[in-house]
Amino acid sequence: MRCKFLHLSDVHLGYQQYNLKERFNDFGRAFEYIVQRAIEEQVDFVLLAGDLFHKRSIDPPTLLQAVMPLEMLKEKGIPVLAIEGNHDRPHYQEVISWMDFLTDRGYLIALRPSFESGKAILKEWDGFCGAYVDLRSRRDPKGMVRVYGVPYYGAATKQVIPTLRDALNEMDHRGVDYVIMMLHAGPDDVLPHYLATVPQSVLTPLREFVHYLALGHIHKPYERENWMFNPGSPETCSSEEVAWPERGFYLVEVDTAAQPIHRARRIQNPRRPFVQVPINVELFQELQELYVSIPAKLGEHIRGPDAAQPVVEVVLEGIWPFASERVDVERIRSIVAQQVEPLVVRVTNRTVARGTSDPDGDNLSHAELERRVFQHLFEQDVRYAFHAAQWAQLAIEIKRMVLEESSPQSIVEHLQHYMEEQQLNVSDL
Ligand SMILES: [Mn+2]
């Protein structure tokens, strides 16, 4: 059986980054580009592995950014199979999400399993809901591809995956040549402190039934064992993501008679250039020198004519050497603007005051530094001091959940689950 498909994820339509209309448009353009590629490549179907939208409540321009490209796919008869990510789930008191709305209008097929007494039920798509669809390949009409879809389950992911494996084991896969499963989750060793991640060993048992694990959620791209594939975010949702320029989408060609049975190419989509300019303030005797150093520093990081209208982020690092002097952010902006034509200039101050730095903390990652700060705070409070490290971990996870706009209910559930698991309680003194 031969077929060809496109896999993307974490588009985050509707994100008006830095409160700039132009950044809002960038997210729409990235989606449009990828859809255009799907049409040019004449794929059999498109997989959207979660977080099409940045927020649950979207406005008409955002809906339009989704509908216009989806309309093109619909006209070409290219089905779009989707799952909900943490960003596009409905509020828990609401029943239908924007993904459901788009499904109802025939733009996509939002897949999800149902659960009965803790067991996953995998029903075929019936035109309204379901956990899987069977698709015929245009390239090979006798061939059949099955796509399962599993949305975001947050901290419950660890419990959900084994039940999926059991449910897959009871499915009849006769007549199905190739099986795909979409998941809005990932292994826990890609990046620290992401929710809905599990040890890779929890995912591995799915391999018995699934040929291509189509992942979303983690914005850093990765693939493993020619089996799990995560394309990352097409546009840059946070400056952390600048470090992964290889983000994009997969074009996958399947030939079940060949070895290996599929070839997945990760393709980087065009996106707004981001230029990060780190400056170590410890090198300077006086503040004036900092401003003077910027043009040369900027020159080191701006490359070629493709860096049109970039987002420029000047990152100040190191131990702050100037007593009580404030950086003039406007002045930095105008220095940058003399040299390039930036869309926006951001100044991120990661400096620390003298005396507050950790003697061996100079080379700590941002995440590790954060963990230490939390732990230090818990150590100051006798009610938490005894298990400060565990409380710090919990605080980091809750912070991540809030940033991911998890529902209050799921945050409380995670808190209870974690405290039980770690046998934590707040000592009454
Ligand atoms: Mn996302």
Shape: globular
Q: Supply the number of structural domains.
A: 3
CATH topology of the largest domain: Purple Acid Phosphatase, chain A, domain 2
User: What is the annotated CATH architecture of the largest domain?
Assistant: 4-Layer Sandwich
Amount of beta strand? 15-25%
SSE blueprint:
Layout: E1 2-8, H1 21-40, E2 45-48, H2 60-75, E3 80-82, H3 98-104, E4 109-110, E5 114-116, E6 119-121, E7 132-136, E8 144-150, H4 157-169, E9 178-184, E10 186-187, E11 197-198, H5 200-203, E12 212-216, E13 222-224, E14 228-230, E15 248-255, E16 262-268, E17 274-280, H6 287-301, E18 311-317, E19 319-320, H7 329-339, E20 344-349, E21 352-353, H8 366-379, H9 388-403, H10 408-421
Parallel strand pairs: 1-2, 2-3, 3-4, 8-9, 9-12, 10-11, 12-14, 17-18, 18-20, 19-21
Antiparallel strand pairs: 1-15, 5-6, 7-8, 13-14, 15-16
The chain binds manganese (II) ion.
Description:
The protein has 429 residues and is α/β, with parallel strands linked by helices. The protein folds into 3 domains: 2-268, Metallo-dependent phosphatases (Purple Acid Phosphatase, chain A, domain 2, 4-Layer Sandwich); 274-353, no CATH class; 366-421. It is built from 10 helices and 21 strands. It has helices at residues 21-40, 60-75, 98-104, 157-169, 200-203, 287-301, 329-339, 366-379, 388-403, 408-421, and strands spanning 2-8, 45-48, 80-82, 109-110, 114-116, 119-121, 132-136, 144-150, 178-184, 186-187, 197-198, 212-216, 222-224, 228-230, 248-255, 262-268, 274-280, 311-317, 319-320, 344-349, 352-353. Strand 8 (144-150), helix 4 and strand 9 form a beta-alpha-beta unit. Helix 1 (21-40) packs parallel to helix 2 and helix 6 (287-301) runs parallel beside helix 7. The termini are far apart. The mean pLDDT is 89. Bound molecules: manganese (II) ion. Manganese (II) ion (MN) binds at residues 10, 51, 85, 87, 217, 219.
